[in-house]
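Hi R.,

Here's the input for the flavin-adenine dinucleotide complex you asked about:
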Amino acid sequence: MAAQPHVVIIGAGTLGICSAAALTAEGATVTVLDAQSIASGSSGRSVGVVGSQLTDPFEILLRVHSLRLLRQWEALGLGFNHIGYLRLARTAEQMELFARSVRIQEEAGLRSRVYGASELQQLVPHMSTDGLEGGLFGPDDGFLDPHEMCTFLAERVRAAGGTVHQFRRLLDVARRDGGYVLQTDKGAIECDVVINAAGAWAPAIARMFGQTLHVRPERHEAMLIHLDEPLGYTMPMVMDLVNGEGTGLNFRHESRTELITEIHKVDSLAPEDPDAYNDQCEEASKVMLAELLLERVPELPGARLGRGWAGLYPVTADHRPFVGPIDPSEPTLVTAAGAGGYGIQLAPVIGMLAADWVLKGAPVSIPGAEILAPTPDRNIASGGHA
Ligand SMILES: Cc1cc2nc3c(=O)[nH]c(=O)nc-3n(C[C@H](O)[C@H](O)[C@H](O)COP(=O)(O)OP(=O)(O)OC[C@H]3O[C@@H](n4cnc5c(N)ncnc54)[C@H](O)[C@@H]3O)c2cc1C
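And here is the predicted structure with flavin-adenine dinucleotide in place:
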């Protein structure tokens, strides 16, 4: 491979753009292609929450790296709303996992604290604590606008000499000596390396290279809640789900008189066609969201359902992203896809690891990150539970 290879990245969602940013920072020549506009896929339909209030040490470690990068970008002008993230616990066992999470996060330099049920109203005065043991709260977590994140990073890619093409679709691929000829709807592009960061479309891109990639597009919905008056405090991100247990209800501040809410479903959903799915929130989902919200925060002033929408989680069988080559004998074809419901918060670290694979042949920045490669034991059809 050339010392500074020409890398083409398919997809200008968070994973593709973060991969491009990591590669241009290392001096690689990068071209990003998107069939539509920047962040027009799942990234632009997400609710943009970023946080590290988890219990699995490796999952926390990944977010430590993402948060470090996001902090650097924030210092350069990226908006990041630090509203805090509260994960709710229903059992004593979950509280023990939370206490361990605090220790892991503290060692990594992140602030986090366990709250007992009687303390939760300090964070969310409107919260009903029925059925709760307590929560895990990270005051520095929050949300960002994924459109803004992608356009901010695309500008940095361009400033570093990279190219970001919108409305340029990959149609077909031919291998040539030491690289690829990519046929697009606006002419051919030659390159040394390809990163497949096409989200829900990543399996279709893999097929163009004669490979099989198991990423399952699952439909998820979100909705705005309008309030008659400001709450008088900032609603943090509140999540009722610990390792697949809980309702999956979550909600957060959007503006002084608006919340965003969704249900992070844990049951596997039927796969959708990314080019033909219902991108609106269904009435039944709105009713279910409203009922769950009424139970958890019953006295919200004049809460009314607002606009809803749906998008796709690109999901893998084990609910961890794919970063690395499918075929180790073809290291010039790297996958960065399958981030499920976490592709905003994981995108910075996935981009960093994808760049490692391209430039160093292994994910050297994080010990143990080779487990994210789409090896035959992981790259399998899914259908089970989260
Ligand atoms: C309702 C909802 C809420 C969510 N909330 C959160 C959250 O709070 N926090 C979080 O971390 N994650 C969240 N997610 C998940 C997150 O949005 C995704 O994991 C993430 O956006 C995936 O990014 P991506 O770059 O892999 O894919 P995408 O953003 O879909 O990007 C793939 C791109 O590839 C392009 N493409 C496809 N085919 C071609 C082709 N042939 N040629 C060129 N380009 C092509 C597409 O146009 C698209 O822009 C949420 C998702 C949904 C649906």
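One thing worth noting: The helical segments are 14-25, 57-75, 92-107, 120-123, 146-159, 202-208, 283-296, 347-360.

Cheers,
M.
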